[in-house]
From TrEMBL:
<keyword id="KW-0472">Membrane</keyword>
<dbReference type="Pfam" id="PF07332">
    <property type="entry name" value="Phage_holin_3_6"/>
</dbReference>
<feature type="transmembrane region" description="Helical">
    <location>
        <begin position="73"/>
        <end position="94"/>
    </location>
</feature>
<keyword id="KW-1133">Transmembrane helix</keyword>
<keyword id="KW-0812">Transmembrane</keyword>
<protein>
    <submittedName>
        <fullName>Putative Holin-X, holin superfamily III</fullName>
    </submittedName>
</protein>
<dbReference type="InterPro" id="IPR009937">
    <property type="entry name" value="Phage_holin_3_6"/>
</dbReference>
<feature type="transmembrane region" description="Helical">
    <location>
        <begin position="43"/>
        <end position="67"/>
    </location>
</feature>
């Protein structure tokens, strides 16, 4: 019969358990989200690194090719450098558009992750 009695001690104990369980759940959700984000970021960084090397070697090949056509490797490298300067100027001109596109892409990715988490929670109930 004492189990059914109202006790402040029992209420406090249940409240402590609730807070601990809620903290554990929040931590597990955090770990779950991080475990989805970090691998994607790692693959993206590795891909960017490889893309850098591809652009580097292709620009070297372009510089040598233009240099052979013009009989001046210096001119070939100068024209290739001018191409990259032009690209930098274009990025500067369209900076706000590029930032908006990247922000929208990030929002879509994070919302997709959140929707995946919500779907996982619904399946568990």
């Amino acid at each position: 019969m004492e189990d059914n009695k109202f006790s402040i001690k029992n209420v406090i104990q249940k409240l402590k358990e609730y807070v601990e369980n809620h903290a554990d759940l929040a931590y597990l959700k955090f770990v779950g989200r991080i475990s989805k984000i970090l691998p994607g970021m790692t693959v993206s960084i590795i891909s960017l690194l490889f893309a850098f090397f591809v652009v580097f070697y292709l620009s070297m090949a372009l510089a040598f090719f233009i240099g052979e056509l013009l009989n001046s490797y210096a001119l070939g490298f100068a024209l290739t450098g001018a191409l990259f300067i032009l690209l930098i100027i274009l990025v500067a001109i369209f900076r706000n558009t590029i930032k908006t596109m990247i922000a929208n892409m990030c929002v879509r990715i994070f919302m997709r992750l959140r929707n995946d988490d919500d779907d996982d929670e619904e399946e568990n109930y």
